[in-house]
Amino acid sequence: MGASWKELREVCQRPVRAGNDVAGLLFGDHASLVITKLFVDLGLSPNYASVGFLVSGLVGAALQVGSGAWALAGAVALVMYYVLDCVDGEVARWQKVVNVQWGYYDYLFHMLIKPLAFFGVGLGLWREFDASWALCAAFAASTATLWRKILIEIPGILFLKDVLRRARAGASTASEHLSTRDSNAHATSPASVPAAVASAPVAAHPVDAPAFQLHLDLVTLRALLTNFDVGLVLLTLACALDLVLAPFDAGPLGQLDARGVWLVYYAVVLPLDFVDYLITFLRRRHFSTEMKRLLALAHHFHLEEPRPDERRTRA
Questions:
Q1: Distance between CA atoms of residues 74 and 178, nearest Å
Q2: CA distance 34 to 293
Q3: What is the pTM of this model?
Q4: CA geometry: angle at 107 spanning 103 and 108, to 5°?
Q5: H or E element: which one contains 34?
Q6: In b/e form, how buried is each residue of 46-69, taking b as 16+ CB within 10 angstroms?
Q7: pLDDT tens digit string along 170-205?
Q8: Domains, in order of start, for the chain
Q9: What pLDDT does residue 288 have?
Q10: 250-278 exposure pattern, b = at least 16 Cβ within 10 A, e = fewer
C-alpha cells in the first residue's frame, strides 16, 4: 500500500511550509503532490525529478523560440519545470536524503533555466515579428532575475568563502566579537544540514511556523506581480490566447501579441523590483544581519574529517 496523502503532506510539505512562496501556495503544493506520490510509491530517487525539471526547462525555453502551439507546449513544459522542482525536494524529505551535490546542481539549473526562458520568448517574438526590442526586453528581465538571486545569496557565498575558510585555518572571525545577545537575536535554524556534518544537535525548523498567507495587501500583490513561477502560468495563458487572438498594433513596438505583452511586462517590472530590493537591502543593512545569523548558526557545527578506513574506501 502506498503512502497516504495525509502522510505526504505532513512529511514532505509541512516541514518547509513556513518558507513557502506565493506560487507554492497557489498551485505548486497541489500539483507537485500528485507526482511526489507516484515517486514515493515507486521508490524513485529524487534525482530523477531534478533531471526532469532541467529537461523540462530546457525544452520549454527552446520551444518558446517557435510560435503558436509550439510556444504553448513550451510554456506548459516550463510550468512542469517548476512542479518537478517542488517534487525533488518533497521526495528527498520523504526518503530523508540530503545531497549537497545535487543541491548545487539544483541551484545551477535555476540560474540556467530562468534567463533562457526569457530569451526563448524574446527570440520567438524576434522571429515572428522581426522585433529587435524583444531581445533587449529579454536581456532586461533575465538580468534582473539573476542579479536579484545573486544579491540574496551574496551573504552565504562570502560566509563560506571567507569566514569559514579563515576559521578552518585558525584565524579569528567576526563570531568572536558577537555578543550573546546578537547571537540569540539573529540565530535561526538551518533549513537542511547533512547529518554527517552536524556535530551537535540543533532544533529543526518549527513545523508550526506560519506559512505565507495570501492577503489583500501590497506584500501579496508584489509577490504575485514579480514571482517567476507565477509568471510561467501567465505565460501559458498568454500563449493560449495567441492561438485565438490576432496580434495587434502596439505603436513603436510594432505588432504585438499576448506573449509579447507578457515579456514587456516582466522587462519593466523585474528591473524595478531589483532596484527597489537593492535599495532596501542596503538601507536595512541586510548583509550585516544575515552574516550575524550565519555566524550564530555556524557556532553549532564543525566539519568532521573522515576516518582513515573511510578515506581508503572512498579512494
A1: 50
A2: 36
A3: 0.80
A4: 120
A5: helix 29-42
A6: bbebbbbbbebbbbbbebbbbbee
A7: 554 444 444 434 433 333 333 333 333 333 333 344
A8: 5-154+213-276 (1.20.120.1760)
A9: 80
A10: beebbebbbbbbbbbbbbebbbebbeebe
- The grid coordinates listed for 203 are 532544533
How far is the C-alpha of 75 from the C-alpha of 72, rounded, in Å?
Answer: 5
Would you call 202 helix, strand, or coil by DSSP? coil
* Distance (Å, whole) CA 287 – CA 162: 14
Burial of 116 (0-12, 13-18, 19+ CB in 10 A): buried
User: How big is the CA angle at 236 (ends 113 and 276), to the nearest 5 degrees?
Assistant: 60
- Interatomic CA distance for residues 101 and 192, integer angstroms: 13
Q: What is the 3-state secondary structure (H, E, C) of 71-131?
A: HHHHHHHHHHHHHHHHHHHHHHHHCCCCCHHHHHHHHHHHHHHHHHHHHHHHHHHHHHHCC
Beta bridge partners of 255: 249
Nearest to 122 by CA among 108, 136, 111: 136
Contact between 224 and 238 under an 8 Å Cβ cutoff? The reply is no
What is the pLDDT, as a whole number, of residue 142? 96
Q: What is the spatial distance between Cα 155 and Cα 175, in angstroms, rounded to a whole number?
A: 15
Q: How far apart are CA 117 and CA 130, in angstroms?
A: 19
Amino acid at site 101: Q
Total number of residues shown for the chain = 315
CB atoms within 10 A of CB 185: 13
Contact 193, 98 (CB under 8 A): yes
Q: What is the dihedral of CA 174, 177, 182, 184, to 10 degrees?
A: 90
Q: What's the pLDDT score for residue 300? A: 60
- Asked whether 122 and 91 are in contact (CB, 8 A), the reply is no
Query: Which is higher by pLDDT, 94 or 107?
Result: 94
Compute the C-alpha angle 305/309/314, nearest 5°.
Answer: 80
Nearest to 97 by CA among 12, 201, 208, 190: 12
